[in-house]
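Why do we bother with a discrete structure alphabet at all? Because it lets us treat a fold like text: something you can write down, compare, and reason about line by line. To make this less abstract, here is a complete entry for Nitrile hydratase accessory protein. Read it the way you would read a sentence in a foreign language you are learning: slowly, and without expecting to understand everything at once.
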Amino acid sequence: MNRPDAALSEALFAGTPIPRDAEGPVFAEPWQAQAFALVVALQNRGVFTADEWAQALGAEIREAVAAGGCRDGSDYYERWCEALEHLLIAKGLTSHDGVDALAASWARAAEATPHGKPIVLANDPLAG
């Protein structure tokens, strides 16, 4: 399992149901570490503040808990991605349609990629 820097992770995730062990947060899948790194990079570039991120992530977690999810942390990184998507939309950096179009492009690229080869957007048969 991959681990983020302990001080950074504590600052970003205090009080959240992030999957962790005695040494701190852990990632079960590579995409989780990539999503984590993306938020850190965007925050470091000033795209949003730590407070904005905490508010966005907290809202997603509260919504998931109210709907019966995110109680054991197993869907934490799904909430993480939802929070990032909604925060970027709220800041006018993307739109729901833009996110949906990109997700569809990735799905087409995955379908068009031979087994065992890396999935890249260039494999989307509709890519220009």
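What the structure line is telling us, in plain words: Residues 96-128 form one domain. The longest strand covers residues 20-21.
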